[in-house]
Amino acid sequence: MLDVTVIDDPAAAEASLDPIRARLLAALAQPGSASTLAATSGLSRQKANYHLKALERHGLVELVEERRKGNCTERVLRATAASYVISPAALPQVAPDPSRSPDQLSARWLLSLAARLVQEVGQLIVGATAAKRKLATYAIDSEVRFASAADRAAFAADLTDAVSGLVAKYHDGSAESGRKHRLVVALHPSLKSPKTNNEES
């Protein structure tokens, strides 16, 4: 089972968004069958089996084993991933286009960049998996607490200078055997955590 996979097929996206099928996908983090899922989901075995076949058809669940029970064969399935991300490629007509209105200070442009990141990395994973090759990626995830808006602006300016300097140092447009890499740097407020009863208002 993969940690996360990207869904780029519209029909698969639709199947994963169905509330019943989403619950079955979550339950199938551990292998199960139509019978075991029926017992815990409140569905009939036939209904559970119907939804499982739809999920399997779209590659969202996979067969783990088949068990003989009398005259019947019980099919044990498992989700193909612990988590799923739906790519903008699943809605190509309305997929965000970061080149349409680039604006470093726009939250919506940042969202467009993030959507493109999901789509491109998802496609790269598929290609690397098919070629049985490792995909070279790198990411940093951190938080910084600014004392003021002025400090945040100064940080953004320093970050721009640092990244621009690194790009100028390592970019070689004349390298015929080189490969382009996408670089995205983002800064946004962290979501506020709900206060616990022990925290002051």
Largest sheet: 2 strands, parallel
* Nearest-integer average pLDDT: 92
- The count of domains is 2
CATH architecture of the largest domain: Orthogonal Bundle
Physical arrangement of strands within the biggest beta sheet:
1-4
Gyration radius, in Å: 23 Å
- Here the CATH topology of the largest domain equals Arc Repressor Mutant, subunit A
- What's the level 1 CATH class of the largest domain? Mainly Alpha
This entry's quaternary arrangement is single chain
Alpha-carbon distance between the termini? 43 Å
SS element count, helices: 6
Q: What is the global morphology?
A: elongated
Instruction: Kindly state the number of beta strands.
Output: 4
**How much helicity do the residues have?**
40-55%
CATH homologous superfamily placement of the largest domain: Winged helix-like DNA-binding domain superfamily/Winged helix DNA-binding domain
Class per helix and strand makeup: alpha+beta
Contiguous uncertain segments of 5+ residues: none
- SSE topology string: EHHHHEEEHH
Strand content: 5-15%
Short description:
By secondary structure, the protein is an alpha+beta fold.
Description:
- The longest helix has 25 residues, at 107-131.
- Strand 2 (61-69) and strand 3 form a beta hairpin.
- Helix content is 42%, strand content 14%.
- The protein starts with a strand and ends in a 31-residue tail after the last helix.
- The strands form 2 sheets. The protein has a two-stranded parallel ribbon. Strands 2-3 form a two-stranded antiparallel ribbon.
- It is elongated and about 70 Å long.
- It has helices at 10-17, 19-27, 34-41, 45-57, 107-131, 149-170, and strands spanning 2-7, 61-69, 72-79, 81-86.
- With 201 residues, the protein is an alpha+beta fold.
- The chain has 2 domains: 2-85, Arc Repressor Mutant, subunit A, CATH 1.10.10; 94-170, no CATH class.
